[in-house]
Write a structure and sequence with these properties.
The complex is a heterodimer of chains A (369) and B (295). With 369 residues, chain A is an all-alpha fold. Chain A has a single domain (5-363), classed as Orthogonal Bundle (ABC transporter involved in vitamin B12 uptake, BtuC), CATH 1.10.3470.10. In chain A, 73% of the residues lie in helices and 0% in strands. Chain A is built from 14 helices and no strands. Chain A has helices at residues 5-43, 51-60, 77-113, 125-139, 149-168, 175-199, 202-213, 228-246, 248-255, 258-263, 268-290, 296-308, 312-336, 345-363. Chain A starts with a helix and ends in a 6-residue tail after the last helix. In chain B, a hairpin with a 2-residue loop joins β4 (56-61) and β5. Chain B has one domain (3-294): 3-Layer(aba) Sandwich (Rossmann fold), CATH 3.40.50. By secondary structure, chain B is α/β, with parallel strands linked by helices. Chain B is built from ten helices and twelve strands. At the A-B interface, α1, α9 and α10 of A face α2, β6, α3 and α4 of B.
């Protein structure tokens, strides 16, 4: 190495390091925003609870001796803790988990299908879940479920959609085949849902439509296994997130084209099928409980990619946190904007996310994708 | 590392793309395969790197079949520079080159990986490009980045698919100069329809036509005394040799001619050429040719 070139090389190294630091900083900022937003969201509701009291009540569960919310005129500290832990936190935590899962599934789908329009719903997963739910609501039939018929139906049909795509693309797992197969399945299930709605009574149709809006209102955590829907979703994410993070490099390589990925040692077909199943599984596990919350999965990966680039080592955690923040913020607005009425969160996510998304898109130099 | 390709065949339903390709590439040898478009050159490279699965024959790397090697292990030994880089995620040049370290990286990028990328960036003189989006680069710049990515794999064999295609003369010369510099100590298989580029880079050349090899010789001997009529025609079509084109067009691989595949275009065609398919004949001077003129 000649002496003249040394500074140039060091400069490139330093530039790259600073680029990496920016990416890490973005993730860290979101990591700070999330608990702040949790604290703020926890203060909102019919009972008046201050930010400090909200944090004290949250921490009281872990350190009962050190943190105790100060009683107010109307509420004693025990009531504040109860309100927080039984009414407000489940909804907040479900919002965070659903945001993480849906955004992550979107980022993975966009990576494996190499399509900017891909989202957890592209492959017909949501349509299938909606059909499953409609079947339970209108006809009261399902494969398993008993009292949890709607949830079980939505989950099972979402996974049936994933299986159908797998079967349709088993011979040629090209992204195009998978997207087209997914769109076909989406239309099929939409048509079947419409047929059911056509046959259903007005109240049943209303319930289906309400389910399809998506809501965090069904959040619950129980004290015993599997700890309610929050426990189930948390367990799904705990298992799948580390796996997907480990596959970051494979997802990066896929972005350079299937042939390049193969020449870099990636088992392209295997990774595509596995990740498709995992993303579908995450989506199905969430929307079975929340209904179809759209938009997060499509847009959060784009927002994050426009901020920190497409290196999946940073993009995946960044997208998870963007999803958590956006869904939690949207739900907080949904709960408060026309209080005591609660708007469906799916509507608010779009109203809040679109301006941010369009702003970032317009700011991009040249072609973004 | 020695790369040995033996009787390699590949076909799509109804037509054969590669028909019994046999080539041996010695360690540190620069080997060129020249031939017209649509003759199966890219398919050959993809079969060697297991991107496509050949239907017959084998590819051996130092006596080991490549299909038996672990994918990651293979990526450490063979680097592939594709003809095109498809658009996809927006990635910087640095990230694109860093991808070449994927066979070595678990999750975390080590100091060694970074150093390797920086060395390659420096070697190719693309420091200025390193944080630019890959999609915004010119054709020549992209080609350099793709070569850099493959070099970062530290492969013993480098497969290059028409690296000078679509580049202007100056950029082409620059790429050729870099190829010679940066690929030292590695074996290289270089496919092209650019005779000039092949002549400058390669030690030995094979001429490919309609899915099979027609002639195999050192660059000097093929350029001074081409044996196969097709090789002769190719050389005569060079500007410095009078720009005389070969009559007719290359046959489609869906409908290859009976007998010698080149006979409809050959000025020396004999009766036997129409009836019988010639075998590759090894000559005394080590050259090999598939033509009844030498049978």
């Amino acid at each position: 190495m000649s002496r003249e070139t040394l500074p140039k090389k060091e400069a490139v190294k330093e530039e790259y390091r600073s680029f990496i630091r920016q990416r890490i900083l973005f993730v860290l900022i979101l990591l700070v925003i999330t608990p702040l937003l949790v604290g703020y969201a926890a203060t909102l509701g019919s009972a008046d609870i201050s930010v400090k009291a909200a944090y004290d009540a949250i921490l009281h569960k872990f350190f009962p001796d050190r943190f105790n919310p100060a009683p107010t005129e109307k509420l004693d500290s025990g009531t504040i803790v109860t309100i927080l832990w039984t009414l407000r936190l489940p909804r907040i935590v479900l919002g965070i988990l659903a945001g993480i899962g849906l955004a992550l599934a979107g980022a993975v789908m966009q990576a494996i299908l190499k399509n900017p329009l891909a989202s957890p719903y592209t492959l017909g997963i949501a349509s299938a879940a909606s059909f499953g739910a409609s079947l339970a609501i209108i006809l009261g039939v399902g494969l398993v479920g008993g009292e949890h018929l709607i949830i079980a139906n939505a989950f099972i049909f979402a996974m049936i959609a994933a299986l159908l795509i797998y079967l349709l693309s088993i011979k040629r797992t090209s992204p195009e085949t998978m997207v087209l197969a997914g769109i076909a399945i989406m239309y099929l299930f939409s048509a079947m849902t419409s047929s059911l709605q056509y046959m259903g009574e007005a109240e049943e149709v209303q319930e289906v439509v309400y389910w399809m809006f998506g809501s965090l209102g069904r959040a619950d955590w129980q004290s015993s296994f599997p700890y309610g829907n929050i426990g189930i979703i948390a367990m799904v994410l705990l298992v799948t997130i580390p796996y997907l993070l480990l596959k970051s490099w494979d997802l990066n390589a896929l972005g350079a084209g299937d042939e390049t990925a193969k020449s870099l040692g990636v088992r392209v077909e295997r990774i595509r099928i596995t990740c498709m199943f995992i993303a579908s599984f995450i989506t199905a596990s969430i929307i079975a409980f929340t209904g179809t919350i759209g938009f997060i999965g499509l847009v959060c990966p784009h927002i994050t990619r426009m901020m920190i680039g497409s290196d999946h080592r940073f993009l995946l955690p960044g997208t998870c946190l963007t999803g958590a923040v956006l869904l939690l913020a949207a739900d907080t607005v949904a709960r408060t904007i026309v209080a005591p009425e609660i708007l469906p969160v799916g509507i608010v996510t779009a109203f809040m996310g679109v301006p941010l998304f369009v702003y970032l898109l317009m700011r991009q130099r040249g072609g973004y994708w | 590392m020695k790369l040995k390709i033996k009787d390699l065949t590949f076909s799509y339903p109804g037509h054969t793309i590669l028909d019994g390709i046999t080539v041996e590439i010695e360690p540190s040898e620069f080997f060129g395969i020249i031939g017209p478009n649509g003759t199966g050159k890219t398919t050959l490279i993809k079969c060697i790197d297991t991107i496509l699965k050949p239907h017959g024959g084998c590819v051996m790397l130092d006596g080991m079949e490549v299909r038996d090697l672990d994918k990651r292990e293979l990526a450490k030994r063979i680097g592939y520079v594709p003809q095109h880089a498809p658009g996809g995620f927006p990635a910087t040049v640095f990230d694109t080159i860093l991808m070449g370290r994927r066979p070595y990286i678990g999750w975390r990028v080590t100091e060694k990986d970074l150093e390797r990328v920086l060395e390659t960036v420096e070697l190719l003189g693309i420091e200025e490009l390193s944080l630019r989006p890959f999609g915004e680069l010119s054709g020549g710049e992209r080609q350099k980045v793709l070569v850099a990515r493959a070099l970062c794999q530290d492969p013993e064999v480098l497969l290059l698919d028409e690296p000078t295609k679509g580049l202007d003369v100056m950029v082409k010369r620059e790429i050729i100069r870099l190829m010679k510099e940066v690929t030292a100590k590695r074996s290289m298989l270089f496919i092209t329809h650019d005779l000039g580029a092949a002549a400058e880079i390669c030690d030995n050349i094979a001429v490919m036509y309609a899915g099979e090899l027609l002639e195999h010789a050192s660059v000097d001997s093929i350029f001074s005394e081409p044996l196969h009529p097709y090789s002769e025609g190719l050389l005569n079509s060079l500007p410095e040799r009078g720009l005389k084109p070969i009559r007719g067009i290359s046959p489609s691989l869906i409908d290859t001619p009976q007998g010698c595949r080149f006979h409809p275009r050959c000025d020396y065609a004999m009766e036997i050429c129409r009836e019988k398919h010639p075998e590759m004949v090894k000559l005394e001077d080590g050259r090999a040719v598939r033509c009844f003129l030498y049978a």
